[in-house]
Specification:
alpha/beta, Rossmann fold, Helicase, Ruva Protein, domain 3, 7-stranded mixed β-sheet, 12 helices
Length: about 270
């Protein structure tokens, strides 16, 4: 059954408000599923299964499988197929209670409006979410991949994604690869969780550092430093140890700089500095 026939049989139509653009390119679907298989998952989660272009080949892997879906019509359909469905916004569901297997992999043609938030949320857990294969709007993917510090794509999303995951490009998808065709290009990235990741609180630190890109990092971090009882002089000392002056802006640090700086600052958060 092709995608239009399935929509008709369900009495459904793509909902623009939910960011529904269904992947229809069979080669891209195969590549995504093969990438998930290479991560040796013990369980799978899919966000937004929609009409099942990715869902059905994933089911053929014979692994424990859950889907998160916001559209009630699709929820009813996948329940009727005997699949465990969690109905609701993927940004609000309790992920800790849902990823119980030791090596869970998330696969999704993500609704573009939630893609950045979902990646950031999953950085800090659950840790047994070991890998992700995700479709993004190309511009969002470029921000995640942002290789050169100081460029327009380097920011909060770059630092968070690369601090917690090894990120690889998988494929590029054009408007014709979807129904209905979006107006923008898309890109699929693979994420493998790093063995050593920053301790809790890293997101708050990075958010503060990038809170105003035009301001110096020292100024952006003043409120955060006060909460942690860390002196500004101690921050400047640690920046200097990394080869940066106190006039540096957040976008001038590398991802490794952020991770190293956060670790040193947390060591000094006892109020002695």
């Amino acid at each position: 059954m092709n995608i239009k026939e399935r929509l008709q049989s369900m009495g459904a139509s793509p909902k623009k408000a939910l960011g529904q653009n269904f992947l229809v390119n069979p080669q891209h679907i195969k590549t995504i599923v093969e990438a998930a298989k290479r991560m040796a998952p013990e369980a799978l989660i899919e966000v937004g299964p929609g009409l099942g272009a990715i869902t059905e080949p994933l089911l053929e892997l014979g692994l424990p499988f859950k889907v998160f879906e916001l559209d009630s019509q699709f929820c009813d359909y996948w329940r009727s197929q005997g699949i465990e469905v969690h109905e609701g916004d993927a940004l609000r569901l309790d992920w800790k209670g849902l990823t119980t297997d030791s090596n869970t992999v998330l696969v999704s043609n993500l609704p573009y409006q939630i893609s950045s938030s979902l990646v950031i949320d999953r950085c800090e857990g659950p840790l047994n979410l070991a890998g992700m294969v995700l479709m993004f709007q190309k511009e969002v993917a470029q921000r995640i991949q942002g290789t050169a510090k100081g460029n327009k794509h380097f920011g909060l999303l770059t630092v968070m994604a690369q601090a917690y995951w090894d990120v690889e490009f998988l494929l590029e998808a054009g408007p014709r690869d979807f129904y209905p065709p979006p107006k923008i290009a898309s890109r699929v990235l693979c994420f493998r969780r790093k063995a050593n990741v920053p301790s809790g609180g890293f997101l708050g630190f990075v958010k503060a550092a990038f809170s105003n890109r035009r301001k110096l990092m020292v100024k952006n971090l003043r409120g955060w430093l006060g909460q942690k009882q860390i002196s500004e002089d101690f921050l400047k000392q640690q920046l200097s140890n990394l080869g940066h002056g106190d006039k540096v802006r957040a976008e001038e640090l590398s991802v490794d700089d952020f991770v190293a700086l956060f670790a040193k600052l947390m060591e000094g958060s006892s109020g002695r500095h």
